[in-house]
From TrEMBL:
GO terms for molecular function: 11-beta-hydroxysteroid dehydrogenase (NAD+) activity. It comes from Engystomops pustulosus (Tungara frog). It comes from the Eukaryota. The lineage of its organism: Eukaryota, Metazoa, Chordata, Craniata, Vertebrata. This is 11-beta-hydroxysteroid dehydrogenase type 2. Pathway: Steroid metabolism. It catalyses: 11beta,17beta-dihydroxyandrost-4-ene-3-one + NAD(+) = 17beta-hydroxyandrost-4-ene-3,11-dione + NADH + H(+); 11beta-hydroxyandrost-4-ene-3,17-dione + NAD(+) = androst-4-ene-3,11,17-trione + NADH + H(+); corticosterone + NAD(+) = 11-dehydrocorticosterone + NADH + H(+); an 11beta-hydroxysteroid + NAD(+) = an 11-oxosteroid + NADH + H(+).
Length: 317
């Protein structure tokens, strides 16, 4: 029999041509790459086509081969080929994403904080978290999974000396609340973890804080530096670093909250992980500003020295 006129040859050939075009389209319009697993699937397709061609009626063989090709295309969907840490990886599923970015370059007055500090905090704490969340959302939506994000009370209350960090965490809190509303129809649960004061490894990196302090002093306009004074600026940072020495080293409340947010059938919208954290929120939300301001002042504004310009004004009164 002339193979060029064989109905089965044309039928199976048409399936392969159509399949090849779809594969080419996916490769050229996505981050899809050839992985060892995909190569194995392609090889199995060839074996399966040979079996169908020899032992099955044309119509049944075409239906089964087409279904097998569609299955391979589905598992090679571009949404499963995701860029992670500069590389494209093959991910078959994702139940939960835990965001835990917490970059803080400087403790000090908002006026003294460099614009690079504001941008740095926003880039890591907000934009970085937002980008990874958007990248992985297709997988989370398909599994009706969870998004768990570690925020900060500084993003919900105006803590002195934490303008850059607090602003980035506030923006993060707002966008996660938006995701929570928008992803409800998809069955995705979004939770925020609001931790108390915990001592992390970054706190003990004295060289880092010294370099950040020197960078700040070198970058401030001379007029502003003279009005505040180097003594006041240095004391502010020292007070915060000393405050960090009293922070808890037991992270179990945070870990327990994250675990519950991932595994619970009905996770909370917000978890408050830390001793006496409820008191901070109660004072900050429900009590008059005259009381809450004094409360936060007692925690943060413990400077013994005053800004140089204010000290001069006081001496002339």
């Amino acid at each position: 029999m002339d193979l060029s006129t064989s109905p089965s040859l044309w039928a199976y050939g048409s399936v392969w041509v159509f399949f090849s075009l779809l594969v080419f389209f996916k490769f050229s319009h996505s981050d899809m790459i050839l992985t060892p697993a995909l190569l194995v699937y392609f090889f199995l397709l060839v074996i399966f086509e040979w079996f169908c061609h020899l032992y099955l009626p044309i119509i049944l063989g075409i239906v089964l081969l087409s279904s097998a090709c569609w299955y391979v295309l589905n598992i090679a969907s571009p949404r499963r080929m995701l860029p992670v840490a500069g590389k494209t990886v093959f991910i078959t599923g994702l139940w939960a994403l835990v965001n835990n970015a917490g970059y803080c370059a400087h403790f000090g007055d908002a006026e003294l904080s460099l614009m690079s500090t504001y941008r740095g905090c926003m880039e890591v704490n907000f934009f970085g978290t937002l980008e990874i969340t958007k990248t992985l959302l297709p997988l989370i939506r398909s599994s009706k999974g969870r998004i768990v994000t570690v925020g900060s009370p500084a993003g919900e209350h105006s803590f002195p000396f934490l303008a850059a960090y607090g602003s980035s965490k506030a923006a993060l809190s707002r966008v996660m609340d938006t995701f929570r509303h928008e992803l409800m129809p998809w069955g995705v649960k979004v939770s925020m973890i609001q931790p108390g004061s915990y001592r992390t490894g970054a706190h003990d990196n004295k060289i880092h804080w010294e370099n950040q302090h020197k960078k700040l002093l070198a970058s401030l306009p001379n007029e502003l530096l003279q009005e505040y004074g180097e003594e006041y600026i240095s004391e502010t940072q020292s007070l915060f670093l000393n405050y960090g020495n009293t922070a808890s080293t037991d992270f179990s409340p945070v870990l327990d909250s994250i675990t519950d947010a991932i595994l619970s059938e009905n996770p909370k919208v917000k978890y408050y992980a830390g001793k006496q954290l409820w008191l901070l929120y109660f004072i900050g939300i429900y009590l008059p500003h005259s009381i809450s301001d004094n409360f936060f002042k007692g925690i943060f504004l413990k400077n013994k020295s005053m800004p140089r310009a204010l000290k001069k004004q006081k001496n002339h009164e």
